[in-house]
Amino acid sequence: AKTHYHDFVIQATPVKRLCKTHNSITVNGQFPGPTLEVNNGDTLVVNVVNRARYNVTIHWHGVRQMRTAWSDGPEFITQCPIRPGKSYTYRFTIQGQEGTLWWHAHSSWLRATVYGALIIHPKQGENYPFPKPKRETPVLLGEWWDTNPIDVVRRATRTGAAPNVSDAYTINGQPGDLYKCSKQDTTIVHMDSGETNLLRVINAGLNQQLFFTVANHKLTVVGADANYVKPFTTSVLMLGPGQTTDVLIKADQTPSRYYMAARAYASAQGAPFDNTTTTAILEYKTASCSSNCAKTKPVSPSLPAYNDTATATAFTRKFRSPRKVEVPTEIDENLFITVGLGLENCPRGARSRNCQGPNGTRFAASMNNVSFVLPSNFSLLQAHHQGIPGVFSTDFPAVPPVKFNYTGNVSRSLWQPIRGTKLYKLKYGATVQVVLQGTGIFTAENHPIHLHGYDFYIIAEGFGNFNPKTDTSKFNLVNPPLRNTASLPVNGWTVIRFVADNPGVWIMHCHLDVHITWGLAMAFLVENGVSELESLESPPVDFPVC
Ligand code: C2O
């Protein structure tokens, strides 16, 4: 195994998109940021130097970080931010993961431009469980704002209203030829007739789930979230922010140019969303247009309608592990967590300009009625490790405080969230089941739920209220998929299981950044086991404190 050293300099860089240039925060001046390639078993050492005027942290999305929670990265969860002018070195080893992950800033909305692919090849000398493709191409889907995304979220926090939706989606940083001033920079992916390409598709968007397709080509799904899956073919993918999907695509059509495209899967009824389409071009090198390709119009794709929940759900339900897996069956901790948007009455004395949500309220989102608040003086991990009192409590409720028809039309008086920094404590090695239950309190929506530090089995999902008497018959305990981000279906439920074998403090949150901003998160505190190998390592010397 190798050790890879990288320097990430966080800096403001002029980036031109949609006819306008503005200073964006980037890594090493690149947008999207550098692609890191490693083999399973390798160690990454990334020295992050902050030359921007914002606080920053970097999260290695999906990396298990066994015993190295100090390198996970979410601001105020595992570390205090890297202040302007300061630096921090993340150090971690990839253990048993293969496929596609990614890295992104985990501070405010910086990840709009601070992100990149993390590609994990099999161990040296080992092979993929499918024929080695001729090429491999990362396909990063993103969202672009015509203004500074940090200003967009700051304004939303101040006013209590919903933030502006993005102005474009992007593929590898480029909106593509359907947007103004973007045609000449459209991303082009070349292929030779007959060859196979492994597309590593990542939804790095901030707030939008996306459908993705390639005109006239079948996609064979072989992996997701750095876990192999039992291969299946499809013409369209749906990825929530945070999710990755590896697909094989064969250049088996008439040599020509074909669009790749992505657009919103917008499951929330009536809520505004960015209704534009991003494109890239798959170009056969042997295309008869070879001398004058720019003039050949690519073949058009067909994407599902923005509200096509049937297609989105049919897709997520196709995932299986390639073979029989060991799902924990004796459950030590059984949690039932409601996940939902909501509204908060304006605090007394608040000014109306701070309460511009629907009917003079503010948006708030919660899990089991708790709207998560980040600490500001310590990270939760440091507070836990050093036993500093008063930073968090461990009374996150295992079940909702009130029972009601979660997916019905409920009055919001039933559901005023409380604010708090509440953790749920798990003993080392505990087997955990979490039923995630979507709610229809303000508006029902599909939520991509991401757990740090773990992969979990998704053993079942469905619509409506989870019924513990009948729905357990739907559990797949044989070959469920192993992932780090689950699509909780709109007005529905998802059941996940994992073993708490990684000590530390691990946030579980909706990966729509606007929902984290509103508090859609909780965190697990996983205690050390008995031996040193079951315990958190000591913090690095340059660990940022507040
Ligand atoms: Cu991809 Cu908490 O993040």
Automatic annotation (TrEMBL):
<dbReference type="Pfam" id="PF07731">
    <property type="entry name" value="Cu-oxidase_2"/>
</dbReference>
<dbReference type="Pfam" id="PF07732">
    <property type="entry name" value="Cu-oxidase_3"/>
</dbReference>
<dbReference type="InterPro" id="IPR034285">
    <property type="entry name" value="CuRO_2_LCC"/>
</dbReference>
<dbReference type="InterPro" id="IPR011706">
    <property type="entry name" value="Cu-oxidase_C"/>
</dbReference>
<dbReference type="GO" id="GO:0052716">
    <property type="term" value="F:hydroquinone:oxygen oxidoreductase activity"/>
</dbReference>
<keyword id="KW-0964">Secreted</keyword>
<protein>
    <recommendedName>
        <fullName>Laccase</fullName>
        <ecNumber>1.10.3.2</ecNumber>
    </recommendedName>
</protein>
<keyword id="KW-0052">Apoplast</keyword>
<dbReference type="InterPro" id="IPR033138">
    <property type="entry name" value="Cu_oxidase_CS"/>
</dbReference>
<feature type="domain" description="Plastocyanin-like">
    <location>
        <begin position="136"/>
        <end position="286"/>
    </location>
</feature>
<dbReference type="InterPro" id="IPR011707">
    <property type="entry name" value="Cu-oxidase-like_N"/>
</dbReference>
<dbReference type="GO" id="GO:0048046">
    <property type="term" value="C:apoplast"/>
</dbReference>
<keyword id="KW-0325">Glycoprotein</keyword>
<feature type="domain" description="Plastocyanin-like">
    <location>
        <begin position="10"/>
        <end position="124"/>
    </location>
</feature>
<keyword id="KW-0186">Copper</keyword>
<dbReference type="InterPro" id="IPR001117">
    <property type="entry name" value="Cu-oxidase_2nd"/>
</dbReference>
<keyword id="KW-0479">Metal-binding</keyword>
<dbReference type="InterPro" id="IPR002355">
    <property type="entry name" value="Cu_oxidase_Cu_BS"/>
</dbReference>
<comment type="similarity">
    <text>Belongs to the multicopper oxidase family.</text>
</comment>
<dbReference type="InterPro" id="IPR034288">
    <property type="entry name" value="CuRO_1_LCC"/>
</dbReference>
<dbReference type="InterPro" id="IPR034289">
    <property type="entry name" value="CuRO_3_LCC"/>
</dbReference>
<dbReference type="Pfam" id="PF00394">
    <property type="entry name" value="Cu-oxidase"/>
</dbReference>
<keyword id="KW-0439">Lignin degradation</keyword>
<feature type="domain" description="Plastocyanin-like">
    <location>
        <begin position="396"/>
        <end position="528"/>
    </location>
</feature>
<keyword id="KW-0560">Oxidoreductase</keyword>
<dbReference type="GO" id="GO:0016491">
    <property type="term" value="F:oxidoreductase activity"/>
</dbReference>
<keyword id="KW-0732">Signal</keyword>
<dbReference type="InterPro" id="IPR017761">
    <property type="entry name" value="Laccase"/>
</dbReference>
<comment type="function">
    <text>Lignin degradation and detoxification of lignin-derived products.</text>
</comment>
<keyword id="KW-0677">Repeat</keyword>
<dbReference type="GO" id="GO:0046274">
    <property type="term" value="P:lignin catabolic process"/>
</dbReference>
<dbReference type="GO" id="GO:0005507">
    <property type="term" value="F:copper ion binding"/>
</dbReference>
<dbReference type="InterPro" id="IPR045087">
    <property type="entry name" value="Cu-oxidase_fam"/>
</dbReference>
<dbReference type="InterPro" id="IPR008972">
    <property type="entry name" value="Cupredoxin"/>
</dbReference>
